[in-house]
Amino acid sequence: MLNGIGNALPEIFLLIAALTVLLADLFLRKHSRILAYMMTQAALLAGAFLVYGNFAEGTARQLMGDMYLHDYLSGLIKLVALLLSCMIVVYGRKYWSNHHETPGEFYVLVLFTVLGMMLMVSTTHMVMMYLGLELMSLSLYALTSLLRDDGRATEAAMKYFILGAISSGLLLYGMSILYGLTGSLEVLTMAEVVGHELDIQAYLVPLLLALVFLLSGLSFKLGIVPFHMWMPDVYQGSPTAVTALISSIPKLATVVVVVRLLIEGLGTITAEWAQVLMVLGILSVILGNLVALVQMNFKRMLAYSAIGHMGFVFLGFSTQTADGNSAAIFYTIVYTVMSVGSFGVLILLGHMGIDAETLHDLKGLNKRSPWFALVMLLIMFSMAGIPPLAGFYSKLLVIGAVLQTGFVSLAIVMVLMSVIGAFYYLRAIKMMYFDEPQDTTPLKFDVEFGVTLTLNGAWVVVIGLFPQLLMTACVKALDAKHLL
Amino acid sequence: MLSILIWLPIIAGIAVLLLNKYSCVKWLGLGAAVVTFILSLLLLLFFNSADPTMQLIERTSWIDAVGIRVDYFLGIDGIALPLLLLNTFITLFALGSGWTITKEPAQFFAAFLFMEGIVNGVFVAQDAMLFYIFFEAMLIPLFLVIGVWGGPNRVYATIKFFLYTFLGSVFFFISLIFLYQHANGSFAFQDLYQHQVTKDAQVLIFFAFLLAFGIKIPMWPVHTWLPDAHVEAPTAGSVILAAITLKVGGYAILRFVLPLLSEAVVSYYWIPMVMSLIAILYVGFVALVQTDMKKLIAYSSIAHMGFVTLGLFMVHWLINSANDTFLPLVALQGAMIQMVSHGFISAAMFLCIGVLYDRMHTREIKAYGGVINRMPWFAMFFVFFAMANSALPGTSGFVGEFLVVTSTLAWGMSVALAASLTLVIGAAYNLWLVKRVVFGDISNAEVDKIHDINTREWLMLGGLAIAVLVLGLWPAPLVDLMNASLNELVQSIRFTVEVKGQGVL
User: Fold this and answer.
1) pLDDT of chain B along its 505 residues, tens only?
2) Alpha-carbon distance A393 to A331, whole Å?
3) Residues with Cβ < 8 Å from B502, sequence gap 6 or more?
């Protein structure tokens, strides 16, 4: 039963680390809270190191019965998520010091979020998937409400919790119907049954019912139209450091669940769900980009832009070609890094307990700090999909895959929406470069914050110049022989 | 060799950004631009102008995953080389005119160095996706140049410029992916040329390309971003915009539309032709009534670029119907020379306006008058460039327009007559501009206080004047440089047109 448990070392290690930080934090006095930060950082980096050292280059393996899956896809996503959380923790420390607070819970909950996410992606068993999802989501609900005396944060936490719980319920209900139909909670066995034994025509209605629940649940988590309502409020209300987390870790995890459930599990009945993804995807692209145009609150704008970007991801999956799937994974990874970076810049601009969150707060950044203005410029142009930055290649791959399947009109809508979307990114750049600063207080940040944010921006350029690095990893991740 | 021309300015630009605290960055930037220019001149030594194929090829696989294959594939031929030289040459003047910038000079110089490298990339890319990447990347520095150092209405102008050109190029982007999939997964120009798509697809792609490059050139009726962008841009920005980026559109037509879409062009060549004639005539008249000097030159740019598109889109008809062996080549030569010449003249005109603006801080024509009394040297240059702009024989402006008009004669006397009317309209707005700005009595007390051009301005205007004169009096070296490649292009078009054997019209 415990055979091969060594492959789950990153998760085990992170669990122990999270509990240690939790315990240690109890005994730390206020001025030595930095120890909790350092332990978290060390845990995340060591976790990343463990994942990297134990990368599943060969075929995927199931361990501990069928509870744990050791494969390339989970390795890649876990590595990205761990490194991103390192960045978020750096930004988070600066955020909390802006607020003159040092909540140890933040670090513990981040660790639990990441742990949940790691469990969620490295399994093909629906129970594990659900447990991981709940661990991640519950930690995020708590994180959202960390600013206890802020009305909007409380509202955001409430919304996030209620809608998140509903979506988890939908997902669970879909899973249970599937279990009823196939008699298995394990995705690969389920795929076997659906592909060969089940009489699809006879059980079409329950199967479609299950699909509807699954798709609704997953769309909720990704913020796909029409299940996007929670996104703007939660993005805006959450503490910015937590918004960065919400915009990255759950997205990465949910995209992997989409791969597991839909592509691996129900890949034999593509016709039943690919069209749904296409419709939902294009609606998200349209709504996200159009509504983002009128947002002056930067966090809210990024929420709508996230809806648009996730639409692109869905469109990538909707092609149901190997290229389209890899493109969707590539898109998600690129998007999450850019999004964390832009929240990092927002955190940089906050001071004295006041968060920077409107576009006006960006004004004159080029005067205050040309370096970070450049970082933000790169991230914004990358989000708009201007070459030679990473965001361009993600759009190139998805649109290429869509055109390959022959949906020219879909591709035209996608590029038109990209042009419309370019406007609000340009507006952010306009604020930074063309306007005079409203607030001239010097920006305060320590070395590691500066280095992290610079790396975040540099990543966009490096992947822009050498996109091959990440692309091959994404292709490998979805390669049939790595997926079981 | 070609890689150096792309990356040297870009690396120098990064260095300038990093060293922004030191006062020597301007010299560093200019030095890098000079080195790049000298290196691009060295290309002439290695370049064999008798050979029509791509030379100095560099090719390595760059991206090959997720169904997309892009090669880092550079090469140069007689069509790209003159434009590349134009770019490295004009960048010197752009940097020179920005010498007195006080607001963030390091960022200013860096933006133009990035621009130089990127545009070099556009001209030497032999892989369509690589071309597109450079083509789009151009927007970033230009957006910032207009937005940061521009005039009062700069935000409107620069966002309009960006979105307009971005809108055009996304259709180019989709067409490229379609062509790529048709060419069995290769973006290399040579592979795209070999896999001609069906006529129906060609027609759609033709209109997509026409939109993309029509906006870039710009052609009537999608030209409206240009006057706004020019008026708000700083002098150096206007110089690069008029002299270089407009040429990218013409170059793209030579590279993509003419060889790739022969069947569509044979059927629909008249649409861009009519648009070009409207640009030449109507926009010429529009230029006549402008009260802002920069706007006037911007409209005259559109009219002059009308000659370029007129010459380019006539080639298929000349091959298909006129059955003349020589005229297609003349039309292409005319368009190319017109592009190079317009690069010199428009840069010079914008520099002249910049010189006046630096002293008077207004571009309104009515604020001037009698400038010759205080700035005789400047007046000499201004009159000379205005003459060149109205295509006076002996200046480079004449050669291109003459060749294009000659080739339109085959199409019909009326068209040639209409096109040559521009000589009259052009003379009208240029001479009237000169009369109102340079000659007459000093009516404005401010004009009385201004002083003549300094050495830096003398050098810049003098350099361009020499270029205009040399190209006007002795265009043979330029023609020799590009003839083999243009001839090859004509032959390949003739081949596709005749093989398909679909004589339309």
Assistant:
1) 889 999 999 999 999 988 888 878 888 999 999 999 999 999 888 888 888 888 888 899 888 888 888 999 999 988 999 999 999 999 999 999 888 888 888 899 999 999 999 999 999 999 999 999 999 999 999 999 998 898 888 899 999 999 999 998 999 999 999 999 888 888 888 888 888 888 888 999 999 999 999 999 888 888 889 999 998 899 999 999 999 999 999 999 999 998 888 888 888 988 999 999 998 889 989 999 988 889 999 999 999 999 899 999 988 888 877 667 788 888 999 999 999 999 999 999 999 999 888 888 888 888 888 888 888 888 899 999 999 998 888 888 888 889 988 888 888 888 888 888 888 898 999 999 988 888 888 877 777 788 888 888 889 899 999 999 999 899 888 888 888 888 888 888 888 877 765 544 3
2) 8
3) B263, B266
Decide if B163 touches A, using CB distance below 8 A: yes
> Do the Cβ atoms of B353 and B363 come closer than 8 Å?
yes
Other CB atoms within a 10 A radius of the CB of residue B200 amount to 10
List the single residue in A323, A330, A387 with the smallest CB-CB distance to B136. A387
Q: In this complex, is the C-beta atom of B140 within 8 Å of any C-beta atom belonging to chain A? A: yes
For B330-352, write each residue's pLDDT tens digit: 899 999 999 999 999 999 999 99
Neighbouring CB atoms inside 10 A of A281's CB total: 28
- A430–chain B Cβ distance below 8 A for any pair: yes
**What is the rounded distance in angstroms from the CA atom of residue A478 to the CA atom of residue A260?**
10
Distance CA A171, CA B295 (A): 61
CB contact at 8 A, B243 and B302: no
Residue contacts between A and B (CB atoms, under 8 Å): 108
Interface predicted TM-score of the whole assembly (ipTM), two decimals: 0.91
Whether residue A400 and residue B139 make contact (CB cut-off 8 A), yes or no, is no
Q: With b meaning 16 or more CB within 10 Å and e meaning fewer, what string describes A334-368? A: bbbbbbbbbbbbbbbbbbeeebbbbbebbbbbbbb
Beta bridge partners of A125: A186
Per CB-CB distance under 8 Å, the chain B contacts of A381 are 140
> Max Cα separation, chain B?
69
B14 touches chain A (CB under 8 A): no
The two structure tokens encoding residue A326: 């890899």
Q: Say if residue B455 is exposed, middle or buried (CB neighbours under 10 Å; 0-12, 13-18, 19+).
A: exposed
* Contact B378/A at CB under 8 A: no
Classify residue A442 by burial, with Cβ atoms within 10 Å: 0-12, 13-18, 19+: exposed
**For residue B160, which residues of chain A lie inside 8 Å, CB to CB?**
none
In single-letter form, the type of residue at position B119 comes to: V
Q: Which amino acid is at A142?
A: A
**Which residue do the tokens 């306009």 mark?**
A430
Strand partners, B73: B59
Q: Is A399 on the interface with B (CB under 8 A)?
A: yes
Q: Mark which residues 74-133 of B lie under 8 Å from A by CB.
A: 104, 107, 129, 132-133
| Closest CA of chain A from B133, distance in Å | 5
Q: How close does chain B come to A411, measured CA to CA in Å?
A: 7
Strands (E), B335-379: none
Nearest-CB residue to B137 (from A387, A393, A434): A387
